[in-house]
Amino acid sequence: MNPAPTLASQPSPEAATARTLRHVVADDAHAAAVELDGWQQRYQQLTPGAFRAEMSQVTYGDVHVFREQTSQSLLEEGEAARGYVALALPDMQCQGGWFSGYGMDGQTLLFGRSMAMRTPRQLDLAGLTVPLPALERAVALAGGEPARLERLPPVRPITKSAGREFRGVLLSVLATASLDAEVFSNRFIESAMRDALLLAAATALVGEGNAGNEPLPTVPARRRLVADAYQMIRSAPDQPWSILSLCERLGVSRRTLQYSFNEVTGLSPLDFVRAVRMNGVRQALRAGAADSVGAAAANFGFQHLPRFAAQYRAFFGELPSATLARR
């Protein structure tokens, strides 16, 4: 296997803690402009009428995801923080706006460090801001060409299915943050959220057909890759494994990883990781290697005990306490 591109420089200790969800409602364009974290922005209202803006945003490590909904046409100008770039996609109802001199609608992916945007009267925009080096490495792991990022135009077409997938990930992350406070204290969930956002960005930029030039691995290579992954997961079951971290450690693209796992195990990589962890907990409970269900679960990366118990029961047909009682 080729050496793996490094996924991303790990967030500094100061940045490593997820910031709780912020939801802001504003009735003034200037007030709305200052609410988006990590940006220097200026908004001017262009059409007459009462204005309303809603912004939801959350940060995981060095990745920031946001949703902006506005009710009047605006001129928005701004710059992301140094070393960061942004990707954003309007909803399918967006018509009649422009971004950096290009027309935009629900099938145009917006990209860059700076922006000059005239919005339509109704805008629902989902996006994220990421460090450029992290995005470049994620693009490489997704099978794309990182060097092309510097040459990308500020607006590029995206298919309906790819757009739905990209917006779906962003909105799902925001929805999870609004419903479950655990995402702000659990390093597994934070890592998964961060990597899911990076992967969504990389996939949207690489495009549906551009990663297909990579040759698929041979049967022996697929088996070897899965065996290596299995040993890696077993040796560190408490680590927050994600698609991107597996790709990085194994030195393969996301496409190769998913294809190999589907062919060899019949499972997705993350379903396989979960199965290995579940079986590890069960073996520990049956062998008396842990004094409690909580201790056994924590040793294999399950931090939320009620959720783990429900997953364990769905997986094995009994609660972990029942397994422990039979040791």
UniProtKB/TrEMBL annotation:
SMART domains found in the cross-reference section: HTH_ARAC (SM00342)
Transmembrane domains' residue ranges: none
Gene Ontology molecular functions: DNA-binding transcription factor activity; sequence-specific DNA binding
Domain HTH araC/xylS-type stretches: 227-326
UniProtKB keywords: DNA-binding, Transcription, Transcription regulation
Protein name: HTH araC/xylS-type domain-containing protein
Lineage: Bacteria, Pseudomonadati, Pseudomonadota, Betaproteobacteria, Burkholderiales
